[in-house]
Amino acid sequence: MSRRNHRVAVLVLEGAKPLDVGIPAQIFTTRQSMPYEVRVCGAHPGPVTGGDGLSYHVADGLEAFEWAETIFIPGYRHPDQEDPPAEVVDALRAAHDRGARLAAISTGAFALAATGLLDGRRATTHWHYTHALQTRHPSVRVDENVLFVDEGRVLTSAGAASGIDLCLHLVRRDHGVALSNHVARRLVAAPYRSGGQAQYVPRALPEPLGELFAATRQWAIERLEEPLTLADLARNANVSPRTFSRRFLEDTGYTPMQWILRARIDLARELLERTDLGVEQVADRVGLGTGANLRLHFHRILGTSPSEYRHTFAEPAA
DSSP string spanning 131-146? Predict the structure, then answer.
């Protein structure tokens, strides 16, 4: 992987939502700790009328797409009533043809769908607009129950906050879990929420129980090297194993033991990136027992081996 900065453009359309614009602009902002460079652009340079009482002044027009390797399309007002400008649609298609990665936040999925690049693919958007997206673009396989969808070089996310999850997912995909966790800490955000997690927690889940489960997840993360069981987790949460399993799945999109396994793999990723521990030592530190077990689960979840992962993402020697 090249160590040069990855070039990111954030497209501001008429009626752009401020939070949707701000999330990728802030996460990928050019700074010493981030291997990214970001530009905010519009259909044309100059003022752009935004949504929710804010407007923008962008320095770049669509020529920024020729420079960018990743293009974010933030949400905008009334996406179900009119298509984005034809020149924007054409420029997005051309950028994708050149190899750029396109990522829509919230209702930005409508602009991405207008290119035809989502036809036959899974996609999501804010839950309020999922049916409108399906009606307007029937060839898109709209999933209303997820935070984000990664289809390789076209990605979509649900409402604004899930744009954070999508951005962290891309940082993790590009540069590993250590940098993603660093960004999450800077944002004071959850370091990892599954793309398959529900867009909103069911009403049947009482708030105090959700808080208790958050405490149990933190308790488990601090003990990943131990042989944790469903009974251990339920006991910590002070509920029955059956109740814990059902409500944990509703809250996170994973069964408790699936979540524990992924937490162990994420810890293994960070150890592979930041230490010179051998695979057997890493496996022991994260509670997977043997190197063979670590390799098995690592390949099943990430599609690569621990040694290849370390070769790709390990911090360079000082």
Answer: HHHHHH-TTSEE-TT-
Q: For residue 256, what are its two tokens?
A: 């408790």
Answer for the pair 280, 290: CB distance below 8 angstroms, yes or no.
Answer: yes
Beta-strand (E) ranges in 26-142?
Answer: 36-42, 46-49, 55-58, 70-73, 101-104, 122-123, 141-142
Which pLDDT tens digit goes with each residue over 158-175? 988 889 999 999 999 998
What angle do the packed helices 160-175 and 18-27 form, to 10 degrees?
20
Q: Judge contact between 5 and 35, C-beta under 8 A.
A: yes
Give me the pLDDT at residue 191, please. Answer: 63
In the chain, the N- to C-terminal Cα span, in Å, equals 18
Q: Which of 317, 268, 310 is nearest to 288 (CA)?
A: 268
Chain centroid to CA 184: 11
Q: Which tokens belong to 262? A: 């992924």
> What span, in angstroms and rounded, lies between the C-alpha atoms of 159 and 193?
14
What's the chain's average pLDDT?
Answer: 88
pTM summary value:
0.72
CA-to-CA distance for 7 and 237, rounded, in angstroms? Answer: 44
Cα(264)–Cα(295) distance, integer angstroms = 12
Three-state SS for 155? strand
Backbone angles phi, psi at 37, to 5 degrees: -130, 130
* Beta carbons within 8 Å of 235's beta carbon, 6+ residues apart: none
Buried b (16+ CB within 10 A) or exposed e, 183-218: bbeeeebebbbbbebbbeeeeeeeeebeebbeebbe
Provide the token pair at 84: 């984005």
